[in-house]
User: Which sequence fits this backbone?
């Protein structure tokens, strides 16, 4: 009796395997397109950072964690207007805190595509998340080669250590 069950089981499982092998050929072949995006993060000596996406050609500008900790509690942020043409090294805004006021300088040249409107109502985001939620503006770079003039994360850390 067990032999009959085993034979019946083998014949039905081989039929299932044959059906599974036939199924992939019935499906349409979909080629997968891979797009490689390079995202680069660079720093200035004045403690601004830019995260550049080579696919969109957009750089997201922020202040660094080191800068926000030096400033203390941020109470006001002045940002550039959308559509403004900015030049690398030029003043694009300011940050005021309970301790001090500091200018914000453009790490790269280009056109301001978007500003972080949330900072108008919540300037403290610069303290809580300066390089993520507290980003300042998004810039369409006019000359991506300017990024080469900026520091890598390792170079920036050494720069901060030498500031003390």
Assistant:
């Amino acid at each position: 009796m067990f032999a009959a069950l085993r034979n019946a089981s083998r014949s039905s499982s081989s039929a299932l395997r044959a059906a599974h092998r036939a199924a992939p050929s019935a499906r349409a072949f979909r080629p997968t397109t891979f797009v490689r995006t390079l995202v680069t993060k660079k720093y200035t000596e004045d403690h601004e950072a830019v995260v550049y996406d080579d696919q969109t050609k957009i750089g997201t500008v922020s202040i660094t964690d080191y800068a926000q900790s030096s400033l203390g509690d941020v109470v006001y942020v002045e940002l550039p207007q959308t559509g403004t043409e900015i030049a690398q090294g030029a003043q694009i805004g300011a940050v005021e805190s309970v301790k001090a006021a500091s200018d914000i300088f453009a790490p790269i040249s280009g056109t301001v595509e978007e500003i972080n409107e949330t900072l108008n109502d919540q300037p403290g985001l610069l303290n809580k998340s300066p390089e993520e939620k507290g980003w300042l503006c998004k810039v369409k770079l006019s000359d991506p080669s300017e990024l080469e003039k900026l520091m890598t994360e390792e170079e920036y850390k050494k720069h901060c250590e030498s500031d003390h």
Q: What stands out?
A: The radius of gyration is 27 Å.
